[in-house]
């Protein structure tokens, strides 16, 4: 029985662990409490790893993940996952979006209320210091305040809705959404970041990336209202931490609610010394409900990925299968087979692969190119080539992948053409189509119109179109005990001919050399599909 290894790198809900344990195809390793060095050795045998924000999937991790097919981030943010590095190694990165949305939304509201009423401080004053001093703890109300929401996705939009229930005025900044998503809720949408800076309270809910890091820095804070309140339950570093500290100590920022830090765990962070901050140790996703949902979904998705069944919420697959209509899938498979075939026919360093599509298939020529590249490179690479790393490996090998969507019609409903060029200037161009019988059919090779099924072991022979060649081919193959399964011929107006011979036996180099010695024969190529 085939067994797949899934390593759980961080703590996930028991329900997820049970699913992993109960699947007889899964060898499950719990490594959440292992030190980082030990974890690196454990993941060497893993097919799939489940991680949370405590495990950095960095170059070191990837270097040890020698067998890894997929990483399931049991949560939303993948800022600590080197996605490009994973893609290069063919590792699919998946996350579990939305399962912790409500948990993060409610924690954001908790921080907002805590900041406005200084709740943890009044609480500690009474509970720890045993002081009853009501006049010390005057806070502010949310009602009537302007809330600036940066990032109006799953979490940001729901924070806004809840804030609206507190009778706050909402203004949202998110250049990547349709403004109606905001305006339909009777909220204000802005493309002007300055509008956000003029709010009473600002909360951020974007992913952490190059564009969003330090989105709030010294200059932005300077433009804010005196006494502004800032909330960050998304990622440390979206608000520049030094600027935040300076703003809090100067009093420009009255209060901040912070769940996330640049470097976690953050037990010695300067912000912890301030009296106008409420903090939590990255608890946005920490509710029983959300962790149950995430644990179960992460386990389900990890099992499916380990078995190669599906890759839910894959972030680095160049092809979104859900957007590929059924008629395209066989063309992708055919493109991959042609890529494989053309590499064998040329047996030389590939420099360019040009993929063209005509008909409806033209819309999917990029996906097609990925499949062709996988087919072409599977023959020449020591690495395991797959749809995730095909583009990276091609670049590394200096192979240029070109695509062309041809809009003019052909006699075929859909036609794909793949031209492979080698460093020595050799080229092979094959066009193919699929009729209603679902058979992959080559319809042209190097400009010769020919109809031949794309399968089996084939010899492609070019010759001067003179009498006697076919007979010579037949006798040469018979001499070597080769059985011919199919023989197709094509000729052009330059007195050249091309034969595709499907054979039942493996062809030796001797046989190929003897074929090449036939008078009038100009080239012989051989491939096994
Ligand atoms: N504290 C915690 O435990 C948790 C933190 N998070 C963090 O919250 C983030 C948001 O999560 P979701 O709302 O589920 O993600 P989402 O993908 O649904 O929403 C993100 C929104 O940010 C917007 N955005 C991206 N770049 C932007 C920019 N430069 N300016 C303005 N808006 C921009 C996007 O258009 C999108 O609408 C995650 O990426 C994660 O880092 C998520 C869950 C729990
Ligand atoms: O889902 C996210 O992005 C979170 O920040 C939650 O992180 P965690 O799984 O709690 O380490």
UniProtKB/TrEMBL annotation:
It is an enzyme of class 1 (oxidoreductase). InterPro entries: ACT-like_dom_sf, ACT_dom, ASB_dom_sf, D-isomer_2_OHA_DH_cat_dom, D-isomer_DH_CS1, D-isomer_DH_NAD-bd, NAD(P)-bd_dom_sf, PGDH. Keywords: Amino-acid biosynthesis, NAD, Oxidoreductase, Serine biosynthesis. Signal peptide: none annotated. It holds the Pfam family ACT. Gene3D superfamilies: 3.30.70.260, D-3-phosphoglycerate dehydrogenase, domain 3, NAD(P)-binding Rossmann-like Domain. The keyword Amino-acid biosynthesis applies. One of its GO terms (biological process) is L-serine biosynthetic process. Belongs to the D-isomer specific 2-hydroxyacid dehydrogenase family. PANTHER family: FORMATE DEHYDROGENASE 1, HYDROXYPYRUVATE REDUCTASE. Catalyzes the reversible oxidation of 3-phospho-D-glycerate to 3-phosphonooxypyruvate, the first step of the phosphorylated L-serine biosynthesis pathway. Also catalyzes the reversible oxidation of 2-hydroxyglutarate to 2-oxoglutarate. This is D-3-phosphoglycerate dehydrogenase.
């Amino acid at each position: 029985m085939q067994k797949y290894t899934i390593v759980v790198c961080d703590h996930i809900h028991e329900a997820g662990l049970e699913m992993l344990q109960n699947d007889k195809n899964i060898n499950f390793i719990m490594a959440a409490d292992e030190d980082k060095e030990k974890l690196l050795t454990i993941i060497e045998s893993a097919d799939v790893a489940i991680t949370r924000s405590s495990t950095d999937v960095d170059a070191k991790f990837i270097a040890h993940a020698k067998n890894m097919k997929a990483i399931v981030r049991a949560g939303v943010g993948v800022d600590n996952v080197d996605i490009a590095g994973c893609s290069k190694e063919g590792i699919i990165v998946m996350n579990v979006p939305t399962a912790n949305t409500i948990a993060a939304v409610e924690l954001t509201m908790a921080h907002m209320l805590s900041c406005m009423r200084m709740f943890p401080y009044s609480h500690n004053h009474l509970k720890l210091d045993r002081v009853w001093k009501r006049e010390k703890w005057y806070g502010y109300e949310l009602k009537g305040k302007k809330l600036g929401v940066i990032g109006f996705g799953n979490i940001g939009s729901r924070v806004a809705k809840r804030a609206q229930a507190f009778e706050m005025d909402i203004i949202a900044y998110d250049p990547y959404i349709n403004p109606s998503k905001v305006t339909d809720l009777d909220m204000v949408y802005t493309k002007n970041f300055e509008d956000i800076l003029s709010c009473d309270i600002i909360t951020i809910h974007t992913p952490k990336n190059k564009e969003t890091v330090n989105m709030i820095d010294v200059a932005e804070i300077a433009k804010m209202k005196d006494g502004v309140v800032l909330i960050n339950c998304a990622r440390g570093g979206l608000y520049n931490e030094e600027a935040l500290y300076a703003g809090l100590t100067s009093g420009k920022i009255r209060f901040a609610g912070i769940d996330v830090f640049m470097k976690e765990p953050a037990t010695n962070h300067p912000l912890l010394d301030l009296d106008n901050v409420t903090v939590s140790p990255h608890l946005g996703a920490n509710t029983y409900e959300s962790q149950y949902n995430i644990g179960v979904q992460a386990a389900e998705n990890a099992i499916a990925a380990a078995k190669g069944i599906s890759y839910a919420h894959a972030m680095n697959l160049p092809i979104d299968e859900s957007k590929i209509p059924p008629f395209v899938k066989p063309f992708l498979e055919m493109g991959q087979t042609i890529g494989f075939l053309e590499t064998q026919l040329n047996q030389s360093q590939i420099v360019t692969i040009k993929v063209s599509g005509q008909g409806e298939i033209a819309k999917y020529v990029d996906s097609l190119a990925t499949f062709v590249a996988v087919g072409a490179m599977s023959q020449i690479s020591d690495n395991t080539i797959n749809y995730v790393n095909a583009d990276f490996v091609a670049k590394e090998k200096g192979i240029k992948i070109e695509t062309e969507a041809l809009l003019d019609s052909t006699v075929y409903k859909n036609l794909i053409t793949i031209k492979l060029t080698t460093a020595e200037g050799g080229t092979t161009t094959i066009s193919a189509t699929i009729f209603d019988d679902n058979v992959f059919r080559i319809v042209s090779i190097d400009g010769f119109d020919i109809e031949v099924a794309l399968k089996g072991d084939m010899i492609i022979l070019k010759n001067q179109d003179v009498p006697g060649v076919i007979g010579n081919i037949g006798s040469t193959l018979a001499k070597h005990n080769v059985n011919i399964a199919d023989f197709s011929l094509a000729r052009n107006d330059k007195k050249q001919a091309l034969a595709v011979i499907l054979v039942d036996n493996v062809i030796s180099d001797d046989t190929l050399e003897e074929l090449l010695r036939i008078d009038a024969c100009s080239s012989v190529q051989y491939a096994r599909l």
